[in-house]
């Protein structure tokens, strides 16, 4: 599929130009982070083969690893059934989270207790 065809398949309108991205380690399938891309961020990602996201807080593009050196090298891009979210599998260089953790999902806040048997 060409880049032009890829962009035609993604629904950027649903969230006013933003598309959620679940970023996953391509070898372990561990979820690394959740972020957003715009058309511009995805174009840069495809051109550089490094993940570039849209920072909602800073309101600008940011390439993961540009300051830390912990880049995400793109391996695969998957589109969900409604064409409004992406799963991108990457080779992660270094840690993902700004806290130094290997994933941004390290805070367990709920765990179902095992039911007691009588």
What are the main properties of this structure?
alpha+beta, 14% helix, 2 helices, Ubiquitin-like (UB roll), two-stranded antiparallel ribbon, single chain, globular, 4-stranded mixed β-sheet, 6 strands
Report on this model:
With 118 residues, the chain is of the alpha+beta class. The protein has helices spanning 3-9, 39-48, and strands at residues 19-25, 31-37, 52-55, 60-63, 72-79, 86-92. The strands form two sheets. The protein has a four-stranded mixed sheet with strand order 2-1-6-5, with helices on one face.
Q: Layout of SSEs?
A:
Blueprint: H1 3-9, E1 19-25, E2 31-37, H2 39-48, E3 52-55, E4 60-63, E5 72-79, E6 86-92
Parallel strand pairs: 1-6
Antiparallel strand pairs: 1-2, 3-4, 5-6
Task: Briefly summarize what is shown.
It contains 2 helices and 6 strands.
Summarize the helix and strand pattern as letters. Answer: HEEHEEEE
In spatial order, strands of the major sheet run 2-1-6-5
Largest sheet data: 4 strands, mixed
The Cα radius of gyration reads 16 Å
Count all strands and give the number: 6
Q: Tell me, rounded to a whole number, the average pLDDT.
A: 94
Please tell me the total number of domains: 1
Q: Give the overall shape, derived from the CA principal axes.
A: globular
**What is the name of the CATH topology?**
Ubiquitin-like (UB roll)
Helix content: 10-25%
Q: Number of helical segments?
A: 2
